[in-house]
Amino acid sequence: MATLFERIIAREIPSTVVYEDDGYIAIKDIAPKAPVHLLVIPKRVSTRLDKIEDAQQLGELMQTAIRVAKSQLQDYRLVINVGQGGGQEVFHTHVHILGGWEGGNPVGFGG
Ligand code: 5GP
């Protein structure tokens, strides 16, 4: 069965797309946890980050997340939830981009 994000990539479920190339899509999160909250999603499906064994794929995912983040924000936080205990709800690997907090101060991590 297609993942939620595969259905978004296929435009079966609407979303706000902020970036797309052959391998990746970046969309606005439907329930933002920060003033700017984007999701960077590889089109090649893996269930969770630690299932990606290829260093090039991992690097490309981070490069894409950084490129998208820098196109929208000066400073930002990247988050990857890995597994249910790590807060992952959608089992199609993705990177959260969070930012835009007033005064530049994010909550948590001593921020
Ligand atoms: P996870 O908890 O798996 O790391 O993150 C999944 C994210 O997907 C959550 O932040 C959630 O708000 C977002 N999300 C869930 N359903 C949808 C949807 O239909 N559209 C969009 N744009 N985001 C979604």
- Name the average pLDDT: 95
CATH superfamily: HIT-like
Based on DSSP secondary structure assignment, what is the total number of beta strands?
Answer: 5
Biggest sheet: strand arrangement:
1-2-3-5-4
**Name of the CATH first level:** Alpha Beta
* Sheet with the most strands, sense and barrel status: 5 strands, antiparallel
Oligomer: single chain
Spell out the helices and strands N to C. Answer: HEEEHEE
The name CATH uses for the topology is: HIT family, subunit A
Helix content: 10-25%
Cα gyration radius (Å): 14 Å
Number of domains: 1
CA(first)-CA(last) distance: 40 Å
Number of helices: 2
Poorly predicted parts: none
CATH architecture: 2-Layer Sandwich
Helix/strand/pairing category: alpha+beta
Question: Any ligands, ions or cofactors bound here, and which?
Answer: guanosine-5'-monophosphate
- Approximate strand percentage: 15-25%
Coarse morphology: globular
Describe the protein.
With 111 residues, the protein is of the alpha+beta class. The chain has one domain (4-99): HIT-like (HIT family, subunit A). 22% of the residues lie in helices and 22% in strands. It has 2 helices and 5 strands; from the N terminus they run αβββαββ. It has helices at 4-9, 55-72, and strands at residues 17-20, 24-28, 36-42, 77-79, 95-99. It has a 5-stranded antiparallel beta sheet with strand order 1-2-3-5-4, with helices on one face. The radius of gyration is 14 Å and the shape is globular. Guanosine-5'-monophosphate (5GP) binds at residues 4, 13, 15, 27-31, 39, 81, 87-90.
